[in-house]
Amino acid sequence: MIPPAIHDTTCPTVYTPAPQCTHLPHSVHTCLTVRQPGLHAPRGPRTTAGGGGRPRPAAIGIDFGTSKCCVAAVRDGRVDVLENELEQRTTPSFVAFNSQQRLVGSDALDQPVVNCANTVYAVKSFLERTYDEVKDCYFPCHIQPILKGHRIEYVAHYKNRDQRLRPEQVAAMLLGKMKDIAESSLGCPVDRAVISVPASFGNAQRLAVKYAAQVAGLEILELINETTAAQYFG
């Protein structure tokens, strides 16, 4: 369910997605002539800081998944799912903490084995959940959620001290990783995004995703349902 993400003002009028890019919602479009409901009008090319550089992407598209995340962009008129530092198009939705550093994505993939008590995964499922909703769940190799008011927090042992984290803060780390992947792949800053979310997400959960994106340095152009993404892009 990856939202494609760049308003590419150089693309042709008729656009065909690249074969590998499926489940891409229509909401962040290229320069399509016929506008679909919910589409934003193209804002034109943006240049890198200082002007005169290569056009900056108007936005990226992020599939914020339970087990893995993806980020997509339009380059040369084609939607491209961008590769991470391991040349993989998907990045595990893992965040782990140890005495020296924070590990996000592929760097944290082995942490459930060696550092399970300080590893978080499936954080999307915990956004704006109450403690009563999760207290009886079993979380193998996962930071145990604790009660904070009516909501939950994680306590991670990080840099030799216990750190309290909300699920949306962990989500921000994952979205920040997607931003880093996009900037590394595209070679320019990125600060706007469309993110796909489950259709079952309520207002509170959607606000939590928006907050996480803001912390990660991303302006949300739109949150689009994963089901809508699948409907339009297979």
From TrEMBL:
Molecular-function annotations in GO: ATP binding; ATP-dependent protein folding chaperone
Family under the similarity heading: Belongs to the heat shock protein 70 family.
Organism of origin: Hyalella azteca
Descriptive protein name: Heat shock 70 kDa protein 7
UniProt xrefs under Gene3D superfamilies: 3.30.420.40
UniProt gene name: LOC108681973
Pfam families, alphabetized: HSP70 (PF00012)
Entry superkingdom: Eukaryota
UniProt-listed InterPro entries: ATPase_NBD (IPR043129), Hsp_70_fam (IPR013126)
Keyword vocabulary terms for this entry: ATP-binding, Nucleotide-binding, Stress response
